[in-house]
Amino acid sequence: MPFLALLALTLPAPALAQSAEDRARAAASASRSKTSDSDTLLQNYVTPGLSGKPISTVDSSKQFTPNLACQKTATLLEVFAQPGSTGDLGSVRISRDTDLNGTFDASATLPFQVSGICANGVISCDAGTWNNCHSYRWAVDPNQAPRLENVAMTELAGCYCINNSCGSNLAMANLPTILKDLGGGVVGALTSSDPRYGVAEAKVDGPVISYVGAQSTACTANPTIGQTAYRSSPTAMVGDATAASSTNSVFQMLVSSPAGTAKGIENRSCTVERRVTVLSPTVDDIISRVSGGYSTMRNGGSLDFLLGSPADNNLSGGSCRLFDFRMTLHVGDAGRIISASLPTYFADDWAQIRIDGQLVSSGPSSWTSTGFPPGKCDLKKTSYMYPNLDLKPFLTEGDHEIWLRVAVGDGGEGYAQVHVEVDDSCHSEEQVIDQCVTLAGDPQCRLQNETVDGVQTVLNGVRTGLAPVGQTRVVGNATCPITLTRDFFLKQRSYRCTFDNGAIEPDTSRGAYIIDHSTETLLADRVRNTDGSYSTTTRNFNLPDRGSVNACEMVCKTRRPQVNTAAALDGVTGAKQNDPIGWDMIYHACQDNNVCPAGDGEQLVEGCGCIDDFQEAVVMMQTVRLGGTDLVCTGTAR
Question: Can you give the pTM of this predicted structure?
Fold first, then answer.
């Protein structure tokens, strides 16, 4: 194939007498001369390859014309921009070679001036101002012709102002950069619509930028072809790769080798879930009167359980008689009882209050026995007691008996009140169910992917740097809603786990021994004998002279003043600053004799040398990272 000629090296006859090292150095030098940087690579290979021109081998001894594209052109697209007196681009014309025959056959001029440039569009405002602005994004019509569509500014990226409202003569002074950004947006829309187009080079000539390119993938009028099918359906690549590997002899040989069969890899998934249960109990679920007593009075979460016979003289005791009144309370949820007390009771003549058989109060005087009171039975009056006794320690979960005993001489009555305050509001119980504990603790398993509440935090074993903000959710139902804010509710993880399938692993101990015991001048080896023992050897080893290289590439650092013309929804950024002029820092590779090739308007910051600005770079990246963590993306404007 002609393409293989790129790798061919035709050496002159005297070179055959050179050593292998000399020939390698000569080949490397010839290769560097044609591929030393991107511009050289474009000039020698990419541009002529896409435009159907001859390409020379590395040693320039042979030429060939590759057929990398079915239709070739040297002028795929041309953009002309002319700044006006207001600093806006008063005229922008786009010319295209639609049939790729080397001649422009379609041209269009923008119907408005351009006040700002974006990576994927333009902004048009009133001439010379940043007022009454409209945003446009590059797209293509059904005939593959570039066009602009009106969009919100949030749909654009990397926008900046170029007219006089942001500084004088910005467009003319920065015309090459503006042309590249303007043309890049057009080319991006064109290649996104039809991926067959390949752009090899952009050339700026005054107010014009031209693009060299071609239809670089196949001889077909249909942009949906095999080489570009994965762009629209990336998941198809997995199935196609499996199909290709099943018939590939090299792949099957590796799969069936000891190295391929000794260990297996298995994907395992698990979740860490916060489960929330909403509890909305009724008052009766907390505490209720199941027997005895004569009334239960309710007022919201306040209950009064009444027992006895309070009507005046409705108990006939003769000379002295004991009357027992019992009430059973069932406690279903002791944790929701706020308070429980015995606020009052009265008797004509004597009374005792017991809970589960334990005496808690008596009156009007001490009465501790279960028999008759210690004094005269008929006191001829009603005694009122207000102990306000705390009963909460007695009301554990289960059934409890409240017992009122009244001693009556002649006629009398008795009464007791148990007051309870309960919390019948909606509560939630939550627990974190971690099903990943085993996998996370297994040294043979490695976290491959993790999604936290829909945010991808780990992808293919690498942290994405994204983290979800605290989640707020409403759980329960319409009658009992609860708002919870937690750092997460659901983590979905997948692990790649290595397991031993019982096959014999290849012996790599010899290679490990050589690596561990050899030096730059000594080669150590260990081989296994037929009887199972090992023999070790050492011999001298010398690497060929690798020559000397510089400790670094000599570079210099300059700076150039730059007006902040970046544009956003709120206007031009520089207009919000006290001083809109900042500095662009530029690094140059030094020329011979350590000469710094500073450009026009640049000031030397640091001369040629081994410049190490790693700390400054780290601070800048950390600043951007921390700034990003303060931003929250939402689906609606806030």
Answer: 0.51
